[in-house]
Every structure is written in C-alpha cells, then in structure tokens.
Amino acid sequence: MTVPTSAPTLASGLLGKLRSRADVLRQLGQLPRPLVFTNGVFDVLHRGHVVYLEKARAMGASLLVALNTDASARRLGKGPERPLNNEMDRATVIAALASVSLVTWFDEDTPLDLISAIKPDVLVKGGDYDMSKLAETSVVEAYGGRALAIPFVDGYSTTALVDRIRLAP
C-alpha cells in the first residue's frame, strides 16, 4: 500500500485524510478530543456504513477509521473474491465522508496493537459484536476509555448486497 505523505496539513482534503500508522501516531496530538476509533473492511460502502460512521463521529470530536488491509480482510473468511475493492480504493471512499477525520490501515487480524498505541477515548464497533468479549474493550477500559456497540441499520449488509448482485439477471 502506498500512503500519500506529502499532504501539507493534517486532514487537508481527501488524500490528506489517508495516513500510515506511523503518521497517525505522530499526529495524534493534532486531533481534537475525544477521539473515536472504529475499524472494519468497509468493502462496498452502503447506507448502513454511512449511518454507523455518522453515529460514531457524534460520540467525539474526531473519528479515526482503521481499515483491514486486503490481506487482513481475506483472512476474515468472507470469500476468496473479497474484498471487492482494494485497500486504497476503500480508504479513499471512507476518507471522502465528512464524518471521518483520518483513515489508516492494519494488517493484523484485529486492530488491538493499533488501539493500544493510539489510546482512543472511545472504541466503537458494530452491533454484531459482544463488546464484553473483545480484547480491545479490556485495553480501552484499562486506561479509562469507553467501548460501545452501535446497532446496525437493518437491511444493509455488504455480503447481502454482493449476493443480490450475483443473482441479478
């Protein structure tokens, strides 16, 4: 993955929101607090994603979205053809949303190491997660942060959308 690093200021324009992990760590002090963190594949952006990200941003002053790299996403078991959009394309689409402050990537199976380094004030996950069972929740709560689940918008799923497209005549 090639991450643009020549953006003159933090989050100036669309490409200015795309940051390597190292850049995010260097620029944490510039992000208004409370900082909200969420992560995911966000393969085919749909209404459910957008509503989720708006709700996440409403919980703080900044929203950092960490995307699974293509390799990390493939390990999630969603199918050999997923993600449909590559990591830079997915990041660019997410960065275009006004609710998103910065976008970065993680190549591990979970963003636990990234969360430990960033120490967001609020960790947000989708409603399909049991927050009490996530290692990320323990890490965030250990330093005084909050970990919350946001309910899904019913009827919106990338997997269901991909299945519908496959069945279309």
Short description:
With 169 residues, the chain is an alpha/beta fold. The protein has a single domain (13-167), classed as HUPs (Rossmann fold). It contains 8 helices and 5 strands.
Please give a structural write-up.
This protein has 169 residues and is of the alpha/beta class. The chain has one domain: 3-Layer(aba) Sandwich (Rossmann fold), CATH 3.40.50.620. 36% of the residues lie in helices and 17% in strands. It is built from eight helices and five strands; from the N terminus they run H-H-E-H-E-H-H-E-H-E-H-E-H. The chain has helices at residues 13-16, 21-27, 47-57, 70-74, 87-95, 112-118, 135-142, 158-167; strands at residues 35-40, 62-68, 102-106, 122-126, 146-150. Strands 3-2-1-4-5 form a five-stranded parallel beta sheet. It is globular. The model is unreliable at 4-9 (pLDDT under 50).
Going by CATH, the homologous superfamily would be: HUPs
- Secondary structure class reads alpha/beta
Instruction: Give me the count of strands.
Output: 5
Our count of domains comes out at 1
CATH topology: Rossmann fold
Within the largest sheet, what's the order of strands? Answer: 3-2-1-4-5
Major β-sheet, in short? Answer: 5 strands, parallel
Distance between the termini: 35 Å
Low-pLDDT regions: 4-9
Helix content: 25-40%
Mean pLDDT score, rounded?
88
- The CATH class designation is Alpha Beta
Question: How does the SSE layout of this entry go?
Answer:
Elements: H1 13-16, H2 21-27, E1 35-40, H3 47-57, E2 62-68, H4 70-74, H5 87-95, E3 102-106, H6 112-118, E4 122-126, H7 135-142, E5 146-150, H8 158-167
Parallel strand pairs: 1-2, 1-4, 2-3, 4-5
